[in-house]
Amino acid sequence: MGWGTLTGKLVTFEGPDGAGKTSALNAIVADLQPRLGDRLVVTREPGGNHISEAIRAIILDRKNTMMDDRTEALLYAAARRQHIVQEILPALQNDQLVLCDRYIDSSIAYQGAGRGIGEQAVYDMNQFATKGLTPDLTLYFDVDAAVGLQRIQTHRQNEINRLDVEALSFHHKVQAAYLRLLADHPARIKRVDASQPLERVVQQALQIMTAQLPAYLGTEGKSK
Ligand SMILES: Nc1ncnc2c1ncn2[C@@H]1O[C@H](COP(=O)(O)OP(=O)(O)OP(=O)(O)O)[C@@H](O)[C@H]1O
Ligand SMILES: Cc1cn([C@H]2C[C@H](O)[C@@H](COP(=O)(O)O)O2)c(=O)[nH]c1=O
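Above: inputs. Below: predicted complex with LXEULUCI.
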């Protein structure tokens, strides 16, 4: 296991659908970009490169109602592997700060718990894909699953994917798994209260990032 010395940092954004991860990420990038310039890398899962975006299109296509749960889990892991090799790893080797919209915790919550494959089984399967590459920091955007889905219905009708249309019971299982991950990994996963107005969410997320990554975002980072 392991990828050798990595001087960059990987921060992942996690939470139920409609929690506001992408909205917060965009605002955080606007805040950090002037300071970090090309040391900042912004990406997403599934996706982030041509191959993984092609896999994303297959997974999220609402026409693919026949997709088997384990096929789905394997496709997410395959997209992740390609994303790591092509985007994340080179950035971490190059001392960059990678902000990634979703990562392995999504697979544990959605496929492990939501689909019922098993959280440990999905974690183990992903070790083959990630070779143990774990985020330095994960922000968990905590909002009730029903609130997140309502936000999507109200504001994002044009972008509803195959996972979004699952039953509320599926999304509650996902949320419960996320809360278990939060409790089990207190050093890595930090809670952001995503039920607040977006500006407050962004402020809280930035405070956590600054406290957890002082070399990049604290006073040390400002002189770089
Ligand atoms: N704090 C907030 N309060 C109210 N509405 C919000 C908040 N944050 C985001 N929204 C709105 O909710 C919708 C979903 O937000 P966004 O796409 O950022 O969520 P997400 O967590 O990235 O969702 P998904 O994982 O499904 O892509 C958007 O229309 C956005 O404008
Ligand atoms: C990485 C990953 C994602 N998912 C789900 C979560 C969302 O419903 C979609 C991605 O859409 P988004 O608008 O970019 O959030 O895919 C998953 O089930 N498993 C995963 O590993």
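The mean pLDDT is 95.
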